[in-house]
Amino acid sequence: MPFMQADTLSEQYPLLQGASPETVEWLLSVATRHDYPANRAVVMEDAWGNAVYFIESGWVKVRRHAEDSSITLAVLGRGDFFGEMAILDESPRSTDVVAMTAVKLMSISAQRFLQTLFKDSQLHHRLLQIMVQRLRQTNLRFQLRHQPPAVKLAATITAIQEAYGEPVGDGVDLFNIPRKDLADLADITPEEANKIMAKLVEKGWIVEDNARSVLHLKNTRQLAHLAGRL
């Protein structure tokens, strides 16, 4: 299956929206496409720093390993990218990236991506902007560390919905992230996540469509209010 056109690529990936058409064409010409099934490791610990990866479809999670367990640090979906920090940092890593669903990725080698950054100042600037946005999200999670579990979970769902939610009918559809991963992201226990989600479903704020692995958020305003965002 051929890659998408350059103009479509710019529309799908916020990182590339400020890049010149020549830059996008060049990246497209040197990119490699990958298809992974669910639960397959996309990037292993020792492979960080080799390339930058763009998500064409599907969902991945970034995990940190600690002894015999793992903690989900981030969940990324269509239009996002990862690996940009590793190409600048050669220190050993204890994280990997795993496909949560079937995933289509586009990769660009570290050397070629760095060459492109030096040539296109707008792409460089846009990358810095997105990295700052991610840092602010991390800071927000840190500020919420002493908040009640329900506030933490609402803030997590709201942030993911704002980044990846698809408006549908009377609400917004979002990938139904497994409870353990959602709990890790919100820094609460899986038991707390299950209890709070059951209450949100009971209130009618969220409808679970397990057949499609979708959460339908019917009241995003109330969720944002609970998260302290309004």
Automatic annotation (TrEMBL):
<dbReference type="InterPro" id="IPR014710">
    <property type="entry name" value="RmlC-like_jellyroll"/>
</dbReference>
<dbReference type="Pfam" id="PF00027">
    <property type="entry name" value="cNMP_binding"/>
</dbReference>
<dbReference type="InterPro" id="IPR050397">
    <property type="entry name" value="Env_Response_Regulators"/>
</dbReference>
<dbReference type="InterPro" id="IPR018490">
    <property type="entry name" value="cNMP-bd_dom_sf"/>
</dbReference>
<feature type="domain" description="Cyclic nucleotide-binding">
    <location>
        <begin position="15"/>
        <end position="134"/>
    </location>
</feature>
<keyword id="KW-0238">DNA-binding</keyword>
<dbReference type="InterPro" id="IPR012318">
    <property type="entry name" value="HTH_CRP"/>
</dbReference>
<dbReference type="InterPro" id="IPR036388">
    <property type="entry name" value="WH-like_DNA-bd_sf"/>
</dbReference>
<keyword id="KW-0805">Transcription regulation</keyword>
<keyword id="KW-0804">Transcription</keyword>
<dbReference type="InterPro" id="IPR036390">
    <property type="entry name" value="WH_DNA-bd_sf"/>
</dbReference>
<protein>
    <submittedName>
        <fullName>Crp/Fnr family transcriptional regulator</fullName>
    </submittedName>
</protein>
<feature type="domain" description="HTH crp-type">
    <location>
        <begin position="147"/>
        <end position="221"/>
    </location>
</feature>
<dbReference type="Pfam" id="PF13545">
    <property type="entry name" value="HTH_Crp_2"/>
</dbReference>
<dbReference type="InterPro" id="IPR000595">
    <property type="entry name" value="cNMP-bd_dom"/>
</dbReference>
